[in-house]
Amino acid sequence: MVEEQASADKPKPVRRRASRAAGPAGGEPGHTPNAMVSAPVPVSAGKPMGAVVLPRRQPNRGRVLLVSAVAAVLAAAALVSVVLVLLTQYRHAEATTARQQRFVDTAEQTVLNMFSYNQNTIDESVNRFVDGTSGPLRDMLSQGKNVDNLKAIFRDTQASSEAVVSGAALEKVDEIGGNAAVLVAVRVTVTDIDGVNKPSQAYRMRVIVHEDDNGHMTGYDLKYPEGGN
């Protein structure tokens, strides 16, 4: 039993398997088969193969500056254009407002000249009213002796008259004819020869104001009384 156990523990010899080079089994005598030899590929230290690092491309600073300058000029030009347009619109609006106000002022002055007079200045007052008229109104006053008759009527009253405009508004403007319709509200107070003021009377009139080619405005026509047509 001891011997059997010893023989069982003794390592068994390893049998080597015969090996030969690749090729025909029966080679010629004295011929040694070519052996395949692989040589190690040298690896250079540093960056791994295949990683190509290109130099960083420097920006064209001159072109960038040129583009920036052109953009700044265009932005400034656009801003200037907007400002000029706004200024033009503002000036046009101011001119339009001033012109409309001149229509209203002319209508007010026409009514004041027509109703205001005193015994010492009848001729001057009537002439001032006539000189501020044109068109149909001027034609009506110029017929016959209407101006002289108006002066005579004022003298016969032996009174004076004072008119105060209580309101005026531009109704419409006819750009083709150069006329504007203005509604005027006025109160007229007559003082008799004894200096007694009669109750004031209110009138509302539509005054047509004409603007000639030189920008001069005159009372063109009157719709009276109460602004009726």
Automatic annotation (TrEMBL):
Keywords: Membrane, Transmembrane, Transmembrane helix. The chain crosses the membrane at residues 64-87. GO terms for cellular component: membrane. It comes from the Bacteria. Residues 1-38 are annotated as: Disordered. The keyword Transmembrane helix applies. It is found in: Membrane. This is Mammalian cell entry protein. It comes from Mycolicibacterium fluoranthenivorans.
